[in-house]
From TrEMBL:
Keywords: NADP
MF-aspect GO terms: oxidoreductase activity, acting on the CH-OH group of donors, NAD or NADP as acceptor
Protein name, entry field: NAD(P)-binding protein
PANTHER family listed in its UniProt record: SHORT CHAIN DEHYDROGENASE, SHORT-CHAIN DEHYDROGENASE/REDUCTASE SDR
Domain of life from the UniProt record: Eukaryota
Organism phylogeny: Eukaryota, Fungi, Dikarya, Basidiomycota, Agaricomycotina
Gene3D superfamilies xrefs: NAD(P)-binding Rossmann-like Domain
InterPro entries: NAD(P)-bd_dom_sf, Sc_DH/Rdtase_CS, SDR_enzymes, SDR_fam
Length: 255
């Protein structure tokens, strides 16, 4: 079974983990994006024939993003089956709402929510291009438990958490939009958001600098472990799982 994956923010952290684990299967075609080839040394060093790396910045204007995806006509002639929207930022987010600034809010919304909309708009022609009889179309959002509103988790996340809450809304609206699609494979697609768990990366380093891991009420994962957990759930997704938020262990969580 040949499945084509498109992963944003794949040059480090769990994004790199997705690219590494998925491209280890020669049946998969993996398109991994990075803002710059200069920052993609680990990806390049994998040196796998089924792994294609493209420069793609989700803060670029939409038309530039569309141009940057033109290599997919060669790398993914039958379109993309699974999108993993992993790219995101969380900078100096351990603040109260009173402490956060307008510029911090703008920066995080530009990437974590507006950027997600532009990724969808630019990748849609390839994702919707053609049905794959071997797999449903899947669109996966890497979100976070601090984005939840109904199951609000009390923590200092200010601009980061709120921008990820907006991301969740985008995901749910996409699932709603697809119910009226003229394309059966899009109408039957699966949109799901994931909390991959608390993962030790440079992204979470500020958090870990202020806490004792032994005192945390939840496990801490390596990027490899987190990716394996998420992919286990992604591979088993069914149509009934559409428009759902998942914890890393596969349990469904109310948004």
């Amino acid at each position: 079974m040949v499945v084509t994956y498109f992963i944003t923010g794949a040059n480090r952290g769990i994004g790199f983990g997705f690219a590494k684990q998925l491209s280890a299967d020669s049946n998969n075609v993996v398109i991994a994006t990075t803002r710059s080839f200069a920052n993609a040394a680990a990806l390049i060093e994998l040196n796998r024939s089924n792994l294609h790396i493209i420069e793609y910045d989700i803060t670029s204007p939409l038309e530039k993003m569309k141009q940057d995806l033109l290599p997919l006509e060669k790398y993914a002639p039958n379109g993309v089956d699974v999108v993993i929207l992993n790219a995101g930022i969380g900078i100096d987010y351990l603040k109260t709402i009173l402490q956060t600034t307008e510029e911090e809010m703008k920066e995080h919304y530009a990437v974590n929510s507006i950027g997600a909309v532009k990724v969808y708009q630019s990748i849609f022609p390839y994702w919707s291009q053609k049905a794959n009889p071997e797999t449903a179309k899947k669109y996966i959002f890497i979100s976070t438990f601090v984005s939840l509103v109904h199951n609000y988790f009390p923590s200092l996340t200010s601009h980061y958490g709120s921008s990820k809450a907006a991301l969740n809304f985008v995901a749910r609206h996409m699932a709603f939009d697809h119910t009226s699609s003229d394309l059966d494979h899009i109408k039957n697609s699966i949109i799901a958001s994931f909390h991959p768990g608390l993962v030790e990366t440079d992204f979470t380093a500020p958090f870990f600098s202020q806490v004792n891991k032994a005192d945390l009420p939840f496990p801490v994962f390596s990027p490899e472990e987190a990716v394996k957990n998420v992919l286990t759930v992604v591979n088993g997704l069914k149509k009934d799982d559409n428009d759902t938020f998942f914890n890393y262990d596969g349990t469904k969580v109310s948004w």
